[in-house]
DNA sequence: TCCTTTGTAATGGTTGTTATTACGGTTACA
DNA sequence: TGTAACCGTAATAACAACCATTACAAAGGA
């Protein structure tokens, strides 16, 4: 479980954009809904734009729009856009290579953790932004 | 993906204990294999003991032992023992409740993330410490 | 030209993690 | 009955990640 809230803010942002279809929203407006600073939103939007999930219009009357229909954006797309998935080192210092366990533990653990992470991502990959928007609408 | 290495150190420690069956290992010895400070190991062992996965013998000739056979310890047991699973708040500040999305986003997201986390834990729950030890032995 | 808006750099505060020192309690053994 | 070898845990410092905020350059409409 990641320790930052970029993913939550990114999904929140995309849901707003998806519900106001075609209407560009400013970072300040989005920040008002998320309850944070507009610059935080712009950083998230910048990451989403690099992944080609949103586009931005600069200047007066500008703002951001979804680049794809919510039916074509998965939560995994969003997660990959905003969370650097550089898998952190298992151990902080490399373990003692003179010990059989020290030598063998890392590849073994890595394999298991990769399988576990793949299972987690499979759930996100099958959840569409459109479903999230539908659920939000349903609980009003 | 968690950002600390407690889980890796805990599995490493349990694998050592499981391979030296019956022989108590000192925190200093384990620290030599993990390549860290003995106090770090003792903290991990303390958490593992609270979860009744290991026992410790104090005093001279003391050390730690597995409390169960490696066939009866899953990686999920170990993870739960050393990682506080207090699910962090999705948003840092609660979102704006006057906005429909701000009101609805958190329960919806929480549900999806709980499902994703359950899928991840299912993999850890079906991986036994005994398998890890077997894999380490196999790649010597 | 002026105003609005994005894009991004720089900075400070907060929090989580690891390493390390220190010290008290426990136990085997001479 | 000492003493040495252990564990258990508190305290602290160093370090990194993250977020909020200020600041400012660049873009674009009126």
Automatic annotation (TrEMBL), chains A, B:
PROSITE patterns (UniProt xref): HTH_RRF2_2 (PS51197)
SUPFAM superfamilies listed in its UniProt record: Winged helix' DNA-binding domain
Membrane-spanning residues: none
InterPro entries, sorted: Tscrpt_reg_Rrf2 (IPR000944), WH-like_DNA-bd_sf (IPR036388), WH_DNA-bd_sf (IPR036390)
Taxonomic superkingdom: Bacteria
Protein name stated in the entry: Rrf2 family transcriptional regulator
């Amino acid at each position: 479980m990641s320790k930052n809230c970029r993913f939550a803010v990114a999904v929140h942002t995309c849901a707003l954009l998806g519900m106001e279809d075609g209407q560009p929203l400013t970072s300040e407006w989005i920040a008002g809904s998320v309850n944070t600073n507009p610059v935080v939103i712009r950083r998230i939007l910048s990451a989403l734009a690099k992944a080609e999930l949103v586009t931005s219009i600069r200047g007066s009357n500008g703002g951001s729009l979804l680049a794809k229909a919510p039916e074509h954006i998965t939560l995994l797309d969003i997660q990959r856009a905003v969370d650097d998935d550089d898998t952190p080192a298992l151990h902080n210092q490399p373990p003692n290579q003179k010990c059989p366990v020290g030598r063998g533990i890392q590849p073994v653990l890595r394999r298991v953790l990769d399988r576990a992470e793949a299972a987690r991502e499979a759930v996100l990959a099958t959840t569409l932004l459109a479903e999230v928007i539908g659920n939000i609408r349903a609980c009003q």
